[in-house]
Amino acid sequence: MKSNDQYATDNASTNKWKDGTYNTVAHGRNADFDIEVGIKDHQIKQIKISDHNSESKGIGSKAVAELPSRIIKAQSTDVDAISGATVTSNAIKYAIRNVLDKNRD
């Protein structure tokens, strides 16, 4: 398991990203799973999470279901973790933040 520092979010710089579709892997509580982040007009427009069936149903699966819309709405990974699904939430946020950081305009 990763330390909390590795999952911390950083929104110090402006949120302007290169358009494109980017793939990453999150290291969840029970297994790794794939995430696709779609950027259009320099904004997060889409987040798809697949291969997450190993995450705990009703707990980790709740983070998978709810976090993408929160991140899109906030245009940031600086959103609250899903209660009870902190490890999965932080893994999702960390993976997406890495994609965003690597693709800044």
From TrEMBL:
Polar residues bias: start-end ranges: 1-15
GO MF, one example: FMN binding
Domain FMN-binding: 28-103
Region (Disordered): 1-21
InterPro entries: FMN-bd
A Gene Ontology term for the protein's cellular component: membrane
Organism domain of life: Bacteria
SMART domains given in the database record: FMN_bind
Name under which the protein is recorded: Fumarate reductase flavoprotein subunit
Natural source organism: Lactobacillus gallinarum DSM 10532 = JCM 2011
Lineage: Bacteria, Bacillati, Bacillota, Bacilli, Lactobacillales
